[in-house]
Amino acid sequence: MLNPFAKIAAVLRRLGRDTSGNVMMIFGLCVVILIIAGGMAVDMGRAYLVKMQLSTALDAAALAVGSEANQTQTQLNTDLQNYFTANYPSNPLSTSVTVTPVPANADLTASVVNYQASATVPMYFMPLVSLLPGFGTFTGFNSVTVTTTAQTKKTTGLEVVLVLDNTGSMLCGPNDGAPAYSDSQCGTGVVSTDTSCTNSSNQSRICQLIQAAQLFVNTMASGITSSEQLYIGVVPYVTTVNVGSSFCSGATSCSHITTEACSGDFSDLRGNIIPVTPVTGNTTSGSTTVSNVSPDTSGIRAGMQITGPGITAGTTVSSVNSTTQITLSASATATGTGVNLTVGTYTAVSTTTTKTPTGRWSAGSNIITNMSSTTGIGVGMVVTSTSAGIPTAPITTVTSVDSSTQIHISQNATVTQASNQPLTIKTVGGTITNGSNIINAVSTATTPTVGMVVSGANIPANSTIVSVDSAAAAYTGGTGQLHIQSPTGGAGCAHYPTATANVPLAFYSPLRYDTTNTNTTSNWMGCVVEPTSSDENTGAGAVLNSASSDPDTSEPSGGWPSWYPFYWTKDSANSWPAVSSQSNTTEIQGRVVSDWGGFPGPNQGCPVPIVPLTDVTSSTGKTTVLNAIGSMWPRDEGGTQVHIGMIWGWRVLSPNGPFTPTNGHPLDYSTAQTTGWKKVVVLMTDGTEEWPAATHLTGLGFLNDGKIDTTSTTTAVTNLNSRLQAVCNAMQSSGDFIIYTIGLGSDGASNAQLQSCPGSTGGQFYAASTTNLQQVFAAIAKDLLALRLSQ
Amino acid sequence: MVEFSLLAPILLTLVIGSYETANYVLADLKLQAAAETAADLVAQTPVIDSSGNANYLRSADFTNITNAADQVMSPFATGSGQLKIAYASIVYDSSQNKVSLDWSVVVNGATAINPASLPNGAVASNLISTTSGSTDSVIVVQLTYTYTSPISYVLNSSYTITETAFNRPRYMNCIPTYLNTGNTCP
């Protein structure tokens, strides 16, 4: 009997064993999950696509806003929306698209701006999850919000120093004909009368440089407007730079400038109070005689300190034997012909002898003729007359005795006397006493003043007058009295004459800083000679530097040494007046060869002063910098020392440097790194390193001073090149600087050191012509202000 | 087996269909990136060239930028004129006080940009500052790509897709080209 339940059970058992149609059933069960899973992938893919589109559009919009200048915040916000919308596809897969700065009220002109864009992507398959068993309560998958962010960065916090070429070739137009300079090529494109650089067709290098550098400052200042975020300094250079206005607060009070210990007067690298007189002469080993003194001995008086190759330190002049020969206090240690010697200089000389001949003179001439007698008259005696025409201030002296009827005097007569007139010719002198600081029986034409340097036999070198004890009449009457002090002979200043005698005396006023900084001063204009390096021999012998470390190539670790005043007194290599005459009108644009050396003076080759880091986000600071650039003018001295400019650029940016900080700038290197401040040098030159004639004074002294390790001008250029390379390498390896170099013209293009100087920092630019300078400076400004996406 | 043969077309449609769709979307994303790249390369034109002269885009620069866009599209084929590019600069000329097309360069026969009817519904005067006395401009780059599917089982064998990028010049107000008189902006 069939159990109906057994039948059913059998059917079920058979069904359980039957595998036909299985795939269809499993697929039927799986298809729901497959569709939901596949659909979710499609949903996520769409969300990803939207995110990509948002990101692309946001980047374009953020960069567009960041590149705009001089727009209101409202306008920038509108532009953000417009650029975003334009770049976002018009048929998007999304809704509720928004783009905002973060935070919404962020300053869109700031150096760092964050942006955010978001959109809602509807989910078509995700909600189906709730259909699955057990997921019925699942909600919240109807849409997904995708967000993307962007950040733009503009540079801020900059210390920039512009190191700008002020050498003579900057007087040229686009072409100077280098390396064979010629005025005919130099003058092309130049409007020589345009000394204020206002003529737009004037393509002279200096005018184009001034305009380009001013444009740079204006561009930078308009790009960085946040208060105290941009500091700019200016370093105009030739072979030296002018630090006078930075270091000096008065005519005699300067920091970082070498002075003689007792008097506080500026001194040169051999310890002589400046001014000094360079001469050449022949020395013989073992002999105290120096012969063939050139140009002559008129600037030399007994007692003056003398230095040079083969002359022992501390040697002084014992006597002046003739116009070409002197005797030293100690024998020379070497024999040499035409060696360079340096002695103190003077303005007035005399003995107590008085002669009263007659003679006649002509205005504009320095010759007295038809004299009744020249017997007893010697070089250096003071000439006065009761008749008009012989200047008394400064004192007129005899410079040569030509014959029994004629002498030369130190300055031209101012009035013509056609008939013989009375003359008084007397020496300046006094009585010194062994061990005493008092000089008695002083006879001078005018009263000496406190602070003057006094020289004479047996008087220690660099002695100065500390008190003038008598009334004026006593000095002209031969009964004056003076107190002196002297540093020479040991510690302290109490070193006094070593003999008792009547001696001729020489007085001169020490060099002072010209606080008005005029370029026609007879005083010191403020330029400097580099300090003595640790291994440099400053003794009286050959001052050659064997150089392991030069102070002009790196930052010293133990503080800055002092610099020497750059002051090129009249000497055998030049024949100029006591006053410099380099100015906008004498240094004529378009003439570089014919004017070379034509406008000399003791400050020849001294450019306008350095401007230390100045806050150009303030209008006064910006004006200061713009005016400093505008006041630049070439100083043709025949030399170019780019590395001097570069090292001063470093010194301006150095927190350990000699310049007084402004609001904490220059910043410490570590502070600059942690706060993101950048120290930038922009070095511009139209030339290559060049040492002028060996007898020319440079920022590294005279060639035989040894600061460039050679006495050959050719080798000097090689060494200058390696110094520039050394400065650049040291700045690169410190990692604290960004360097840009600009080479102008053919020499600028061939300057290999300039090309390698920036290394991996900044960049090197080449301006083929003067008209390219503005674009090059603009490009550097843009590079410094560069806008970029940082996130 | 019978059932599998019935299901196979459906499964194949799913598998090949998702490949084809994904490939198409990838091509679209690449095209978008290529458009931005090309526009940004134009917008980043430096102020000066290597010799310090005022810069402008040479004919060769457009060739290079087009090559860059081709590279971005890789591995999608760009030979035989598949990628058409229209470059244009729309500038506000303050002297004439109007917004107009400054220059237009088309590659592979692309349709030139029409400033009066920009893609994405963009309006040129909204993207350019029309302040009197100043120049401003926008770079428009439109890429048109003929997408060819390697398999056309589900989708059509080819589609034409278009992407447009609008970029403001980064370092200049206006970027001149060899087409401009004197190679300078108006």
Description:
The complex is a heterodimer of chains A (791) and B (186). Chain A is elongated. Chain A contains 14 helices and 33 strands. The model of chain A is unreliable at 345-352 and 537-547 (pLDDT under 50). Chain A is an alpha+beta fold. In chain A, strands 12, 21, 22, 23, 24, 25 and 26 form a seven-stranded antiparallel beta sheet that branches. A six-stranded mixed beta sheet of chain A has the order 29-5-4-30-31-32, sandwiched between helices. A six-stranded antiparallel beta sheet of chain A has the order 8-11-6-7-10-9, with no helix packed on it. In chain B, strands 2-1-3-4 form a four-stranded antiparallel beta sheet. The model of chain B has no long low-confidence stretch (mean pLDDT 87). With 186 residues, chain B is an alpha+beta fold. Chain B has one domain (2-183). In chain B, strand 1 (83-93) and strand 2 form a beta hairpin. Chain B is elongated, with a radius of gyration of 21 Å. Chain B is built from three helices and four strands. Classes of the chains: A alpha+beta (791), B alpha+beta (186).
Can you tag this structure with a few keywords?
heterodimer; A: 791 residues; Rossmann fold; 5 domains; seven-stranded antiparallel sheet; B: 186 residues; alpha+beta; 4 strands
Oligomer: heterodimer
In what order do the strands lie side by side in the largest sheet of chain B? 2-1-3-4
Query: Largest interface, by Cβ-Cβ below 8 angstroms: which chains and how many residues each?
Result: A-B, 46 and 44 residues
Helix content of chain B: 25-40%
Number of helices of chain A: 14
Strand content of chain B: 15-25%
At the fold tier of CATH, the topology name of the largest domain in chain A is: Rossmann fold
Average the pLDDT over all residues of chain B and give the rounded result.
87
